[in-house]
From TrEMBL:
The lineage of its organism: Bacteria, Bacillati, Bacillota, Bacilli, Bacillales. Keywords: ATP-binding, DNA damage, DNA recombination, DNA repair, DNA-binding, Helicase, Hydrolase, Isomerase, Metal-binding, Nucleotide-binding, Zinc. This is DNA helicase RecQ. The gene is recQ. One of its GO terms (biological process) is DNA recombination. One of its GO terms (molecular function) is DNA binding. One of its GO terms (cellular component) is bacterial nucleoid. Its EC number is 5.6.2.4. Belongs to the helicase family. RecQ subfamily. Residues 219-364 form the Helicase C-terminal domain. The keyword DNA damage applies. Its cofactor is Mg(2+); Zn(2+). The chain holds residues 1 to 517 of 711 of the full protein. Residues 26-195 form the Helicase ATP-binding domain.
Length: 517
């Protein structure tokens, strides 16, 4: 059977060999095992259901939330000589029911549908008449509350499957590998824990870096000047920033496109199209852009502002270098981004889920403050345990000597304890540096022995040391009405003198600025 799959890969798709994971996923499906396939963006998930679809009798149904992608996918399948179609809200009712009747008559090998369709009884009724050997659930993390892109209509999938005559194999596909999301997908779709195909998430051609403490406008300008001939994406957190950046870059003479949910469908489509056709070199966008985009020559992805969590970050950054050539992924970090993202989360998410989201945001902040390998930090976040420093990222290539900051860390940790472990980062930094802030006097923190113990530091530098200790798991964060910090197990060891703390960025900004001309 796998020989047949191999032949199809060559004859239909023109690829010489399977990539990691594709073969296991395909053979699991052919053995009629419900399967979860976790591969990084660009890993080649589509082939995992397209090849079985060609081998199995009947029509494979592909559920996908990506309306813009469906048409492209179907067009390229049709070009390959494969009978495929899609049904989504871009069609008129008339067109949709015509296609559905054709599908019910068995005209297609692949039928792509948007999950919203599953809410229509007419539609599920038609599906009930069909011979469906396989249901592929693309972007399967959308089924999970814990995913970064929960879609309630994904919850209708199981009901639809129950209404079918036969018993199709379920193949769920996603690039999100966090254990909670995986568990949620498996239990919703009836996938056994040992039926997961997970490929390594390392992207060996990507080099990650975090740029801190620089004017990001200037950084970006310089970067674009040096990479004029390259194609890249710049992600910003809000529509407003996208528009501003777009105008600025355009004024600077760059060929640039933009994309966000506030634009009309037609504008978004034409902007995206220009970028995909290499008519513009730079795409400035919110995270609304890019799901399902298959552009192989993206040389860099810059996050102008902090992304809201590691899941979205890795997915967005992962759009760089799909062709396997060296590419860069950079986050331009500024502490106030945390506030922006906090605000966006608190505005858009029901309170009972906000705490989980804020915790994920903290994961993103930790990424920006760690001095460990960035690729490793990402892989660990996604549950990989056997990792090694990549040797390519901004931290691996940082040649500064690290300094012993154990004493300073102890000052911070003991101050947190003296303050009762129920206050935030900012006020702790102020106590350490001896601020006269009214709140500090009201709480009587000026009477603590740790008050002003770091008075030759700026509150900003003390704050960044706290962030660093958080990223090292020495300080923990609790996300209540507002975030509070406490001394974690590793921090207790530091206090007892059982563990030392080393930091490369020990040079403080006050020292840097006096040295500047
Ligand atoms: P994903 O859905 O995982 O993000 P896709 O299925 O869109 O990824 O595939 C990403 C790219 O890799 C596409 O350009 C696809 O044509 C290519 N691809 C997929 N499988 C193979 C393979 N076995 N060999 C070479 N290229 C492949
Ligand atoms: Zn590294």
């Amino acid at each position: 059977m796998l020989q047949k799959a191999n032949d199809l890969l060559k004859t239909y798709f023109g690829y010489p060999a399977f990539r990691e994971g594709q073969e296991s996923a395909i053979s699991a499906v052919l053995e009629r095992k419900n399967t979860l396939c976790v591969m990084p963006t660009g890993g080649g998930k589509s082939v995992c259901y397209q090849i079985p679809a060609l081998m199995l009798p009947g029509t494979t149904v592909v559920i996908s939330p990506l309306i813009s992608l469906m048409k492209d996918q179907v067009d390229s399948l049709v070009q390959l000589g494969i009978d495929a179609t899609y049904i989504n809200s871009s069609l008129t009712n008339q067109e949709a029911s015509e296609r559905m009747e054709d599908a019910a008559a068995g005209r297609y090998k692949l039928l792509y549908i948007a999950p919203e369709r599953l809410e229509s009884p007419y539609f599920t009724g038609q599906l009930g008449k069909m011979d469906i050997p396989l249901i592929a659930v693309d972007e399967a993390h959308c089924i999970s509350q814990w995913g970064h892109d929960f879609r309630p209509s994904y919850r209708h999938i199981t009901k639809m499957v129950d209404g079918l005559a036969g018993e199709p194999v379920m193949l769920a596909l996603t690039a999100t590998a966090t254990p909670m999301v995986r568990e949620d997908i498996c239990s919703s779709l009836g996938i056994r824990k040992d039926h997961e195909v997970i490929t390594g998430f390392e992207r060996k051609n990507l080099s990650f870096s975090v740029v801190k403490g620089q004017d990001r406008g200037k950084y970006l300008k310089n970067f674009l000047k040096q990479n004029k001939s390259e194609t890249g994406i710049i992600y910003a957190a809000t529509r407003k920033t996208v528009d501003q950046l777009y105008e600025n870059l355009k004024k600077g003479g760059l060929s640039v496109s933009r994309y966000h949910a506030g634009m009309s469908d037609a504008d978004r489509y034409s902007e995206q199209d220009r970028f995909l056709r290499d008519e513009s070199a730079v795409m400035v966008a919110t995270s609304a852009f890019g799901m399902g985009i298959d552009k192989s020559n993206i040389r860099y992805v810059i996050h102008y502002q902090l992304p809201r969590n590691m899941e979205s970050y890795y997915q967005e950054a992962g759009r760089a270098g799909r062709d396997g050539l060296p590419s860069s992924c950079t986050v331009l970090y500024s502490p106030q981004d945390i506030q922006v993202q906090r605000f966006l989360i608190e505005q858009s998410i029901e309170p009972n889920r906000a705490a989980a989201e804020l915790e994920k945001l903290q994961g993103m902040a930790d990424y920006c403050h760690t001095e460990s390998c960035l690729q490793e930090t990402i892989l660990r976040y996604f549950g990989e345990t056997e990792t090694e420093p990549c040797g390519r990222c901004g931290n691996c290539t940082d040649t500064r000597e690290s300094e012993d900051v154990t004493k300073e860390a102890q000052m911070v940790l003991s101050c947190i304890i003296r303050m009762g472990q129920r206050f935030g980062k900012a006020i702790t930094a102020q106590v350490l540096t001896g601020s006269q802030n009214k709140k500090i006097l009201e709480f009587g923190f000026d009477k603590l022995s740790t008050y002003g113990i770091m008075e030759n530091w700026s509150a900003k530098d003390a704050g960044s040391l706290i962030e660093f200790l958080i990223s090292e798991d020495m300080i923990g964060v609790e996300h209540g009405t507002f975030p509070t910090i406490y001394v974690a197990a590793k921090g207790k060891e530091v206090l007892k003198g059982l563990r030392q703390v080393h930091r490369k960025a020990a040079v403080r900004s006050a020292e840097i600025s006096t040295k500047d001309p």
